[in-house]
Automatic annotation (TrEMBL):
Assigned keywords, A-Z: Membrane, Signal, Transmembrane, Transmembrane helix
The protein, known as: Uncharacterized protein
Signal peptide segment: 1-22
Provenance organism: Polyangium mundeleinium
TM segment ranges: 97-119
Length: 133
């Protein structure tokens, strides 16, 4: 029974994330986008207009994180450089490929691997506690 519980805990993110993604898409967004959405600028909050044309809203994060010279800018510069290396004749396509590879494959994969490590360590700690008592 305990093996089944650990297995279910290990599989939970692999089920919960696609289920949440599907639920969000079912609320009206298209399943597959073919273009970036076009929205009008809103005074009080960011829309796709900010993404497409730059944002003039007051930032909520410090410039070290969100500014062009901070972590955000360094991330974008790195993605652009990697995109130029991957697809030299079409750097925008390369940027998109690298962006998806990093943020849709590598990052979630690393987080899932760390989650499995944490589950494994928790299991070992419980076994050690049972042996000590």
């Amino acid at each position: 029974m305990k093996r089944l519980a650990w297995f279910l805990l290990a599989m939970a993110p692999l089920v919960a994330v696609p289920a949440a993604f599907t639920a969000v898409l079912a609320t009206g967004s298209p399943v597959l986008r073919t273009t970036i959405p076009i929205e009008a600028r809103a005074r009080g909050h960011c829309t796709w207009h900010c993404h497409n044309h730059g944002c003039s809203h007051t930032p909520h994060l410090p410039r070290a994180l969100a500014g062009d010279e901070g972590l955000y800018g360094a991330t974008i510069a790195g993605l652009k450089a990697a995109g130029r290396a991957v697809v030299p004749d079409k750097p925008h396509v390369g940027y998109g490929v690298v962006n998806l590879a990093v943020f849709c494959v590598a990052w979630p994969g690393i987080m899932y691997a760390l989650y499995l490590v944490a589950l494994s360590q928790r299991r070992k700690i419980r076994a050690l506690r049972r042996g000590a008592s």
